[in-house]
Design a protein that fits this description.
Blueprint: H1 3-17, E1 28-30, H2 42-48, H3 62-73, E2 93-99, E3 102-107, E4 112-118, E5 136-143, H4 152-177, E6 180-184, H5 189-196, E7 202-211
Antiparallel strand pairs: 1-4, 2-3, 2-5, 3-4, 5-7, 6-7
Length: about 220
């Protein structure tokens, strides 16, 4: 991609995230390349990892969102494997990103967002008041059709472990970059599935809110 095209993609992405372009007008959003340098030392990040339930409505920049999603579940090796583990490399977890202008599926291989549903679905991702105002909510969905090598009785446990690893990556990135986050299991899974148009093989596991802390 040329520098001019990268700049244009960044401008369009900012317009979508900050609400001046409707989601239905842009079914695919190319994220900027993740910045894999910098950040706090691991032991420092672990000491600062925490759950927060108060958020500013400040939006995440395209670069921060790119870094966040790559840290969560991005491709980190040439063979397509990810930053979080999955049993037998099933890669059964899909990460949906609920933004003010629409819900997008994170395509890790292309490092892009694909439109899943138009409209603001943040309030659908949980019962807590803060989900309406925080800049984004992540939804972790297990696609059991990718788990054919895993016995049916164990699929939910395996997928939950994979989602937990992704969620912890988000916690660590948040602690390293000045963001705050909370993982949420108190959610209406049926409402989320309907809003995202999921199939019977796709099971909603968890949601996770991410943003900046409230300004003092």
């Amino acid at each position: 991609m040329t520098l001019r095209l990268r700049f244009f993609a960044l401008i369009v992405f900012v317009a979508v995230v900050f609400g001046s372009v409707a989601a239905q007008d842009l079914p695919s959003i190319q994220l900027p390349a993740p910045d894999k340098e910098g950040g706090k030392p691991l032991m420092k990040v672990l000491s600062e990892r925490k759950t927060t339930r108060e958020f500013s409505d400040e939006k995440l920049s395209p670069q921060v969102l790119s870094n966040l999603l790559w840290a969560a579940w991005g491709v980190n090796r040439a063979d397509g494997k990810r930053t979080a583990p999955s049993a037998m490399n099933a890669q059964e977890i899909d990460v949906y990103v609920a933004l003010p202008v629409g819900a997008y599926l994170y395509d890790a291989r292309a490092h892009a967002l694909q439109l899943a549903a138009g409209g603001d679905l943040r309030r659908v991702t949980g019962y807590q008041d803060f989900v309406d105002d925080a800049p984004l909510d992540l939804v972790y969905v297990a696609d059991h059709s990718r788990m054919k090598l895993i016995p049916v009785a164990g699929r939910e446990s395996y997928a939950s472990a994979a989602a937990g690893a992704i969620a912890q990556n988000v916690y660590l990135y948040a602690a390293s970059s000045g963001l705050v986050t909370v993982i949420r299991a108190w959610i209406d899974r049926s409402a989320i599935a309907d809003a995202l148009g999921l199939t019977h093989d796709q099971h909603v596991l968890l949601s996770q809110t991410v943003g900046y802390p409230p300004k003092s």
